[in-house]
């Protein structure tokens, strides 16, 4: 066999091994996120991709990065398939193709990061430190784009590997979750760079990794020890009705569903705010006087109910439907409401409906209409509250009204679509990161779980797990002063990246000057 043929075969084998390694590393990322949170795997998966991309051409780097993304999302969001089996006879056959297609599309973002890194690293002689910084920068840019392009899907950001580690996740208070991803990936690929380095440089890079972890831990620990504001003295009751999704909207189950929520809400104990999850009431509550009168009997004097309900408004174009949280006082009268503004594609509306002959997965009379955006509600006797319905809580910097800072965030959700999969745990992780970023407690009411009280440091104070029926009685945790991220948003990410590169370039220039000076002195000597 000719040498050039043997060479091509060897190149293909090496490419196949790197693609396989990329896919395996991507698949392992699911174990770095809750509920597993295996921290030691973080440097393994990202260093494997970092090392595997070195020396690759444009096309090969794209393929390896895409394989990593396919493993990352194919396993990381496999829980989405559960929603198709709620009505298996209608949508069950679409479950695997839908997850595979979505994973393949999302994998383009890691592929973009891989291509940009590999091209620049191949053309320029980068030191280990600059190479790691370059990789982390492009990875973070790709994550940011994933969170914004085509309505965005910032699920399982790299920084969420730290959510179960109290001190390490606190960095998000300054630079947000995208900034935390930047730092996480940068530190994670340093071991890979150390493995490729030699001699003194290997030791230097290894010490950098340890210093990065130690710095994040120390800064986070200091934040945890700082004083928060005084608790507002407000008592909450969260109700988790645990109604299976396939039963929730059945007409024959409506009374039983409503009765369960009323019974749980009426259990002994005092509260100022009663919290029901997304679409807890299976109907249009503001139009149902009898139902509101029954709710009034469960509300103590001076208390309010915040509940997820559908809403409809007549318009010139026909009836418009909204996914809302509405507030009711102890008389059953509606006080105010909030309409979800970040809707779920194919779940709450069908994109390009005129072109795509596809049904949406959720029951209803028509597509939902998005609300105007984040809003802070002022309720009698209750600290100012921001609302986030379902997956709105996954978007960093897009939960709180910047003009009217609230004292807490209420996340009404319905994760019944995803059964007992890892989806609800990952969703909860996003809510915890919003608490850290904003310096605000997040209170979560979920139909089948996970309902939780999360303090302003992202710590879970109380929770009801998936599949449990019951209530949480808890005091509203105190808020913290506005964080840097709450004040400046993703500008802090840009500042972090620019500062990192400025410091790196300055350090590189200083090192180069010293080498030149040493060489000059040796020649002169």
Automatic annotation (TrEMBL):
It is a multi-pass membrane protein. Gene3D superfamilies: Carbon-nitrogen hydrolase (3.60.110.10). Pathway: Protein modification; lipoprotein biosynthesis (N-acyl transfer). The chain crosses the membrane at residues 21-49, 61-81, 93-118, 124-142, 174-196, 203-222, 491-511. Its EC number is 2.3.1.269. Its main location: membrane. The keyword Lipoprotein applies. PROSITE patterns: CN_HYDROLASE. GO terms for cellular component: plasma membrane. Signal peptide: none annotated. GO terms for biological process: lipoprotein biosynthetic process. Residues 239-478 form the CN hydrolase domain. GO terms for molecular function: N-acyltransferase activity. The keyword Lipoprotein applies. Keywords: Acyltransferase, Cell membrane, Lipoprotein, Membrane, Transferase, Transmembrane, Transmembrane helix. It is found in: Cell membrane. Catalyzes the phospholipid dependent N-acylation of the N-terminal cysteine of apolipoprotein, the last step in lipoprotein maturation. HAMAP family: Lnt. Belongs to the CN hydrolase family. Apolipoprotein N-acyltransferase subfamily. This is Apolipoprotein N-acyltransferase. It comes from Salipiger thiooxidans. The lineage of its organism: Bacteria, Pseudomonadati, Pseudomonadota, Alphaproteobacteria, Rhodobacterales.
């Amino acid at each position: 066999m000719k040498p050039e043929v043997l060479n091509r075969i060897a190149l293909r084998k090496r490419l196949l091994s790197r693609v396989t390694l990329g896919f395996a590393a991507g698949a392992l990322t699911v174990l770095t996120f809750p509920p597993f949170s295996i921290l030691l795997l973080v440097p393994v998966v990202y260093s494997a991709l970092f090392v595997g991309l070195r020396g690759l051409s444009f096309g090969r780097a794209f393929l390896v990065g895409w394989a990593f993304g396919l493993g990352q999302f194919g396993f990381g969001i496999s829980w989405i398939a559960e929603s198709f089996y709620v009505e298996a006879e209608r949508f069950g056959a679409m479950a695997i193709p839908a997850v595979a297609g979505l994973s393949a599309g999302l994998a383009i973002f890691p592929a973009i990061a891989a291509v940009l890194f590999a091209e620049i690293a191949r053309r320029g002689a980068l030191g280990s430190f600059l190479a790691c910084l370059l990789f982390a920068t492009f990875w973070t840019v790709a994550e940011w784009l994933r969170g914004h392009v085509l309505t965005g899907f910032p699920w399982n950001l790299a920084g969420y590997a730290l959510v179960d580690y109290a001190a390490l996740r606190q960095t998000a208070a300054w630079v947000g979750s995208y900034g935390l991803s930047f730092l996480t990936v940068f530190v994670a690929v340093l071991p890979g760079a150390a493995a490729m380095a030699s001699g003194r440089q290997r030791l230097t890079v290894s010490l950098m990794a340890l210093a990065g972890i130690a710095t994040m831990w120390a800064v986070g620990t200091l934040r945890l020890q700082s004083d928060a504001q005084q608790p507002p003295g407000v008592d909450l009751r969260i109700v988790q009705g645990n109604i299976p999704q396939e039963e929730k909207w059945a007409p024959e189950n409506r009374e039983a569903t409503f009765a369960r929520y009323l019974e749980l809400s009426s259990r002994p104990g005092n509260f100022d705010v009663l919290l029901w999850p997304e679409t807890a009431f299976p109907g249009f509550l503001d139009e149902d006087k009898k139902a509101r009168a029954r709710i009034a009997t469960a509300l103590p004097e001076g208390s309010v109910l915040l509940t997820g309900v559908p809403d409809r408004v007549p318009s010139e174009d026909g009836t418009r439907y909204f996914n809302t949280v509405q507030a009711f006082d102890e008389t059953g009268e509606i006080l105010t409401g909030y309409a979800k503004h970040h809707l779920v594609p194919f779940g709450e509306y069908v994109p390009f409906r005129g072109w795509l002959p596809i049904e949406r997965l959720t029951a209803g009379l028509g597509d939902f209409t998005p609300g105007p955006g984040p809003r802070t509600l002022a309720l009698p006797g209750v600290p100012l509250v921001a609302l986030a319905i379902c997956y709105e809580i996954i978007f960093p910097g897009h939960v709180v009204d910047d003009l009217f800072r609230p004292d807490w965030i209420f996340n009404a959700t319905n994760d019944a679509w995803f059964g007992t999969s890892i989806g609800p745990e990952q969703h909860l992780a996003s809510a915890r990161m919003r608490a850290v970023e904003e310096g605000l407690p997040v209170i979560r009411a979920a139909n089948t779980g996970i309902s939780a009280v999360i303090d302003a440091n992202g710590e879970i104070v109380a929770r009801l797990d998936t599949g449990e029926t019951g209530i949480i009685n808890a005091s509203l945790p105190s808020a913290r002063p506005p964080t840097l991220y709450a004040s400046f948003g993703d500008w802090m990410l840009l500042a972090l990246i620019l500062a990192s590169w400025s410091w790196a370039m300055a350090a590189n220039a200083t090192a180069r000057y010293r080498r030149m000076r040493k060489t000059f002195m040796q020649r002169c000597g």
